[in-house]
Design brief:
Layout lengths: L2 H11 L5 H8 L9 H10 L2 H9 L3 H16 L5 H9 L4 H17 L1 H12 L4 H11 L10 H18 L8 H20 L1 H9 L7 H12 L5
C-alpha cells in the first residue's frame, strides 16, 4: 500500500470534524513541499460538504486539498465545477493553481475527450493563469499515451504560445504572464516527447522567432532531457 492509500485509509477512520487538524499536521506547510499524496487521498475520500469547507477557509493547504478534490466532482459532471476550477486557476497562490492542474488530470485519467475540450476552451481565456492551467493540466506524460492525445496537447500549447506572442509588450512583465511563460517553458517538451514526429516540427517553427519570450520558451524546452 502506497502513501496515498495509507492516508486515505487513515482519513476514513477519522471523524470528519478532525480532518482539518490532521491535514494541517501532515500537510507539510509551511515548508518547501506540500504533501501531495495526502491531498490526493483527501480527493479520494472527501464529501462535497467537506470540500466546500476546505475551500472556504483561509488555510492554504486545506484550500489545496479542496481544489484537488474538485477533480472527482468534475469527473462526475457536477455542473458548477468547471467554472469553480477556472476561478481557482487564477488564484494568487501557486499551490492552489497546482491543485487545479491535479484536478484536471483526474478528468484526463478517465475521460480524455472532456479534458481536451475543457483545455481548448481555457486556452482561449484572456487570463494568462487560466491559459497556464490549460497547458499544465494537459501536459502530463501519462495523459498523452493514447493515439491523438499528444497532438491535442501540441495544439493547445500552440494556441497559448501564439496568444502570448500577441500580448502587448507592456504586459509581458506582469507576474501572471511570466507564470504562463514559465509553464510553456516545460509543457512543450512534454507534448513533443509524447509524439516527436508530429510535435517537433510544430515546436521548431518557433525557433526563428524574434520575440524574446518565445525564444526563451524554445531554449528552456530544448534543455529538457526528454527533448534531447
Amino acid at each position: 500500500m502506497g502513501r496515498r492509500e495509507q492516508f486515505a485509509a487513515r482519513l476514513r477512520e477519522l471523524p470528519a470534524a478532525t480532518w482539518p487538524d490532521f491535514l494541517r499536521e501532515h500537510g507539510g506547510l509551511p515548508g518547501p513541499r506540500a504533501n501531495l499524496e495526502l491531498a490526493q487521498a483527501v480527493a479520494d475520500t472527501a464529501e462535497p460538504a467537506q470540500i466546500d469547507a476546505f475551500i472556504a477557509g483561509g488555510d492554504e493547504y486545506l484550500v489545496l486539498c479542496g481544489v484537488v478534490s474538485l477533480g472527482p466532482l468534475l469527473v462526475s459532471s457536477a455542473p458548477d465545477v468547471p467554472a469553480r476550477l477556472r476561478r481557482h486557476a487564477a488564484d494568487g497562490r501557486w499551490r492552489v493553481r497546482e491543485g487545479v492542474a491535479m484536478a484536471l488530470q483526474r478528468l484526463g485519467d478517465v475521460d480524455p475527450p472532456r479534458l481536451f475540450e475543457l483545455a481548448d476552451d481555457w486556452a482561449g481565456d484572456p487570463h494568462p493563469l487560466v491559459q497556464r492551467a490549460a497547458v499544465a493540466g494537459l501536459c502530463e506524460p501519462r495523459l498523452l499515451k493514447a493515439p491523438g492525445a499528444a497532438a491535442r496537447a501540441v495544439a493547445v500549447c500552440r494556441a497559448v504560445t501564439d496568444s502570448l506572442a500577441a500580448r502587448p509588450a507592456a504586459t509581458r512583465a506582469d507576474e501572471d504572464v511570466r507564470t504562463l511563460r514559465k509553464a510553456l517553458g516545460y509543457c512543450w517538451s512534454v507534448a513533443v516527447a509524447a509524439d516527436r514526429p508530429a510535435g517537433l516540427p510544430v515546436f521548431e517553427r518557433y525557433a526563428a522567432s524574434a520575440d524574446r519570450d518565445i525564444a526563451w520558451i524554445v531554449t528552456e524546452n530544448r534543455k529538457k532531457a526528454r527533448m534531447r
